[in-house]
Write a structure and sequence with these properties.
CATH class of the largest domain: Alpha Beta
Strand order of the largest sheet: 14-13-12-11-7-10-9-8-15
Largest sheet: 9 strands, mixed
Number of domains: 2
CATH architecture of the largest domain: 2-Layer Sandwich
Number of helices: 10
Distance between the termini: 54 Å
CATH topology of the largest domain: Dihydrodipicolinate Reductase, domain 2
């Protein structure tokens, strides 16, 4: 056992997949007083070497070429998963079966059936299953959710969400993301996953029917998606994912209710942006105060230690893939798809 795994009272975390996104999680856990990184997994020894060079504190942490070797070795209480999307299901299920808490990058999984199986397994073993939807811990979206829950917007009638990103050609698009066998889908399954999630999570609404138009832009996966949604309360919504954009990153979220409207506009991958609330009288203002900023690693630790409710439980991953699969099917068939029926072959 390496020296770091002996830290008393800390959650010992194994990192499965040490590519670019892993560094954010590694730094989050290293900055937490409640966690210690106790194992690193990647099939590419060059990536393992690179992460140790970038984070010298990890020089003595045990490394593995296969996550199953980490699980067999023991010495961890939880894992954080950063692998290609189509690998998530088996890795999550095996980790839960090994009695570990799990934090997984989005999308949690790529089919509704897999999402339901993970929910059942997490309940069976009584372990935390959390998805790395960081917007749940970011002040603007936490503010929006609270405004909805407190009734300040009245009945929600319309939601519009847009993300523009140079996803197809940019550095964010690792080659595996264009391979459906590994990615399970394109920009809608990546940046769009965050957008769909925050729409459903902040509003508390459930999607009923979806109509979608999708352009793969000469690739094997979805790049640009225009999605219209009818929610179960009869509210309407749109999700627009532009994966071939010249503007870098831009995110736009609008939620309208009978008593008020909130508009959030932000550039780049930051927590900041322009957040405005407009009341029934048409008076527009910026919030006087926002909830505090959090990070996914500490948030996960707080859930494992029983301090907080699960910020992004597996049910969030289920709702996202339900809507996403319905959108893919609608684009393929040219018909509106009922979300709950999409996986039964109905429309």
């Amino acid at each position: 056992m390496n020296k770091q795994t002996k830290s008393a009272g800390k959650i010992r975390v194994g990192i499965i997949g040490v590519g670019a996104i892993a560094l954010r999680h590694i730094h989050d856990f290293m900055g937490s007083p409640d966690a210690v990184i106790a194992g690193l997994v990647d099939p590419d020894p060059r990536r393992l070497q690179a992460v140790r060079e970038q984070v010298p504190e990890l020089a003595h942490v045990q490394t593995y070429s296969d996550y199953k070797h980490l699980l067999a070795a023991g010495g961890v209480d939880a894992v954080e998963i950063n692998t290609p999307n189509m690998l998530h299901y088996e890795q999550i299920m095996d980790s839960l079966s090994a009695g570990l808490h799990v934090l997984a990058e989005k999308p949690m999984v790529c089919t509704t059936a897999h999402a339901r199986a993970i929910i059942a397994k997490a309940a069976q073993v009584n372990k935390v299953m959390m998805v790395a939807y960081q917007r749940h811990l970011r002040p603007p979206y936490r503010y929006i959710k609270k405004m909805v829950e407190d009734g300040n917007l009245g009945e929600i009638t319309f939601i519009a969400a847009l993300v523009c990103q140079d996803w197809k050609n940019g550095l964010v698009c690792a080659p595996w993301r264009l391979n459906p066998a590994l990615s399970g889908g394109g920009a809608l399954n990546c940046a769009g996953s965050h957008l769909v999630d925050v729409m459903l999570w902040s509003s508390g609404l459930a999607a009923e029917t979806v109509s979608a138009f999708i352009d793969n832009r000469s690739t094997p996966v979805d790049i640009n998606s225009a999605i219209s949604i009818k929610f179960t309360n009869n509210a309407k919504g749109t999700v627009s994912v532009v994966g071939e954009s010249t503007c870098g990153w831009y995110e736009d979220f609008t939620i309208c209710g009978t008593k008020g409207t909130i508009l959030f506009r932000k550039e780049a991958m930051t927590s900041s942006g322009r957040l405005l609330y407009c009341n029934e009288k048409g008076e527009m203002r910026e919030p006087a105060e926002l909830p505090p900023e959090g990070n996914v690693g500490q948030g996960f630790c707080d859930v494992v230690l029983g301090r907080e409710k699960n910020w992004a439980p597996a049910e969030c991953g289920l709702r996202v893939i339900e809507l996403t699969e319905a959108a893919w099917k609608s684009a393929q068939t040219g018909k509106a798809v009922h979300v709950s029926a999409s996986m039964r072959g109905e429309s």
